[in-house]
Amino acid sequence: MEQVPETATDQQRQLQMTVLMTPDTANFSGNVHGGHVLKLLDQVAYACASRYSGGYVVTGSVDQVIFRERIHVGELVTFRASVNFTGSSSMEVGVRVVAEEITTRTARHVITCYFTMVALDENEKPRKLVPLTIETADQRRRWAAAQLRRELRSEIEERSLEIRHHPEDILHDREEHP
Ligand SMILES: CC(C)(COP(=O)(O)OP(=O)(O)OC[C@H]1O[C@@H](n2cnc3c(N)ncnc32)[C@H](O)[C@@H]1OP(=O)(O)O)[C@@H](O)C(=O)NCCC(=O)NCCS
Description:
By secondary structure, this protein is α+β, with helices and mostly antiparallel strands. It has a domain at 10-131: Hotdog Thioesterase (Thiol Ester Dehydrase, Chain A, Roll), CATH 3.10.129. Helix content is 35%, strand content 28%. The protein has helices at residues 10-13, 34-53, 137-165, 167-176; strands at 14-20, 57-62, 76-86, 90-101, 106-119. It has a 5-stranded antiparallel beta sheet. The longest helix is centred in the last third of the chain and has 29 residues, at 137-165. The chain is globular and about 60 Å long. The model has no long low-confidence stretch (mean pLDDT 94). Coenzyme A is lined by residues 58-61, 87-90, 116, 118, 126.
């Protein structure tokens, strides 16, 4: 059996999956069901992070997913995933989704979203990752953006807790100090 190498190559930090949207993926209106797309997004993020880290990973969080446009049954949907950033045991995986109308070959960018995947060891405890090597300008840009999103996630989590526990106080303060 081949050993998992210490550092991942470009192919190992990126992963692409293309899926045909068959009629069984439709919702009540006849377009592709959002839940089906969410499941595929999670699968792609899992496969990308697991391959990069050479072990088991779980989904820690998913940032806001915006469905910019409908995806139609019969379209070919491509998910491009990339590890943008590594922390100690977590990594950010960005996924870009493009839907293609097969007969006209017209492609539309429909979703971009970001997953935080956490590497776990055999005891299901966070496992240390080999840091991502950053060499190109594009990799530097992705790393910097991911670092800023990591900070933003912490701010959102903190603020969400405040909102959940003290919504009336927050609105009251705002009215008092507009
Ligand atoms: C994700 C999980 C392993 C983190 O465990 P934990 O005890 O909080 O671990 P730590 O505090 O040591 O954090 C480990 C890493 O995960 C990150 N992390 C933890 N919770 C996170 C969250 N909600 N979102 C994003 N990142 C998170 C931390 O920032 C840390 O990153 P770093 O090592 O790169 O600095 C744990 O919360 C878990 O098992 N959650 C359930 C995951 C799951 O089942 N997903 C599928 C849902 S059906």
